[in-house]
Design goal:
This protein is an all-alpha fold. Helices cover about 65% and strands about 0% of the residues. It has helices at about 1-50, 55-65, 80-85, 90-100, 115-135, 165-195. Helix 1 runs antiparallel to helix 5.
Length: about 200
Amino acid sequence: MNRAVLLLSVVCLVVSSQPIADSQRLFSIAVSRVQHLHLLAQRLFSDFESSLQTEEQRQLNKIFLQDFCNSDYIISPIDKHETQRSSVLKLLSISYGLVESWEFPSRFLSGSSAPRTQISPKLSELKTGILLLIRANQDPAEIFSDPSTPQVPPYGNYYQSLGADESLRRTYELLACFKKDMHKVETYLTVAKCRLSPEANCTL
């Protein structure tokens, strides 16, 4: 009788821990993918900067600091403290929105380090993975809704014919924003993944 109770307890423990193990595996894959995308974004931006003159870099950096990325309409934590206080589901939903906002603009991201044919599919795969994590971490009582972000014209008139100076500024802005957003997603997914390990230190 005691052996039967012990066996039942072990089975229940394995079953109850299975969803956590599945989420950890999905999180590991998602974090790995966004880390790769963030690295590609850094390389793209670095390649572009190295092709500029010193004065061009200074002027473009000055202009960018005064502008905002198109994805800034997605409300996200303002600092690391707010990030750490945010729920797993909130961090996942924000990450989903940021990744989705780059699905179309990513077609215009290209360079020696990362051809656009490599970036767009990776974003789609990451988006699918985050969607699975959102579903896995929602309360069963909740009705699932697609966390899609409002569709807005990406980066204004970036895709119109522009003069040389304006095109340079737009390219700088696009690459800088892509790098910034991939860093955000990497941070949010890393913190969310850490929450599954109570003994882990999730301090940023």
